[in-house]
Amino acid sequence: MDIISAIIMGIVEGLTEFLPVSSTGHMIMTAELLNLSGDKIKTFEIVVQLGAVLAVALIYWKKYMQILRHWRDIKTANRLNMIHLILAMIPAVVIGLALHSVIKEHLFGSSTVLVGLIVGGILILIADRPKRKVNAETMDNISYKQAFGIGLFQCLALWPGFSRSGSTIAGGMLLGTSQKAAADFTFLVSVPIMFAASALDLYKSRELLAAEDIGFFLTGLAASFIVGLIAVVTFLKLIKRLRLSWFAYYRFAIAILFFFFVIK
């Protein structure tokens, strides 16, 4: 891997990690086009993912501080609290820990990612139907029941190619949240889960880390952080005017390219 490849991979990760398009599919295809392979590349992908996670953590740091300051105040109406986050994280944490080795060994194949791209796109189309009933315009209006339901939808993201943001935003919309509320809550909940998952994967891959790779890893992480920051801020500004279904059509197009360039 050279610096240019590290920058390209970082840019792709930053652009796709928190958009409903499947960063896994994009990273696999990018690595294939750049002729990159091996266990060290997988470790690099974990590192650059942390860059995107840190970008979203920075965007929502005030909300995190608010939740931490009022963590005991769980009865206040119209305020997201720690219980919402815990309820949304429990399903994915439990299932993810129980099936972590199975997922890594059996689901990280090209065919499964292709299925995830397509099925995830279909779920988005179903969620983005017109004349939906919305009872939570902002994430502070989300109920405990909706938070847990979104957490269940987040479990779909354990299937590579499905997309964490795609499954949870679509799930939130199906459960009665606005598109903006679902996106905000998705990003807020994703940070602690993804940080913990990335840290666990990085720890298990620690033997593959070497001092001579620090430059490449930090370059990719920086690119992912900067581009992720821009991508998420832009997405949140456009979310009220942008139909989620456009991302479904994009996923279908990427699935076709994925089939020809990766699966062949």
UniProtKB/TrEMBL annotation:
Q: Which InterPro entries match?
A: UppP
Q: Which GO terms describe its biological process?
A: cell wall organization; peptidoglycan biosynthetic process; regulation of cell shape; response to antibiotic
Its main localization is membrane
Q: Which reaction does it catalyse?
A: di-trans,octa-cis-undecaprenyl diphosphate + H2O = di-trans,octa-cis-undecaprenyl phosphate + phosphate + H(+)
Q: What is its EC number?
A: 3.6.1.27
Cellular location(s): Cell membrane
One GO cellular component term: plasma membrane
A Pfam family recorded for this sequence: BacA
Which superkingdom heads the taxonomic lineage of this protein's source?
A: Bacteria
Among the GO molecular function terms of this UniProt record, one is:
undecaprenyl-diphosphatase activity
How is this protein situated with respect to the membrane? Answer: Multi-pass membrane protein
Q: What class of enzyme is it?
A: hydrolase
What are the record keywords, sorted?
Antibiotic resistance, Cell membrane, Cell shape, Cell wall biogenesis/degradation, Hydrolase, Membrane, Peptidoglycan synthesis, Transmembrane, Transmembrane helix
Which stretches are transmembrane?
A: 43-61, 82-101, 107-126, 147-162, 182-203, 215-238, 244-263
HAMAP family xref list: Undec_diphosphatase
As for family, the record states: Belongs to the UppP family.
Q: What does this protein do?
A: Catalyzes the dephosphorylation of undecaprenyl diphosphate (UPP). Confers resistance to bacitracin.
Kindly provide the name given to this protein in its UniProt entry. Answer: Undecaprenyl-diphosphatase
- Which species is this record about? Cohnella phaseoli
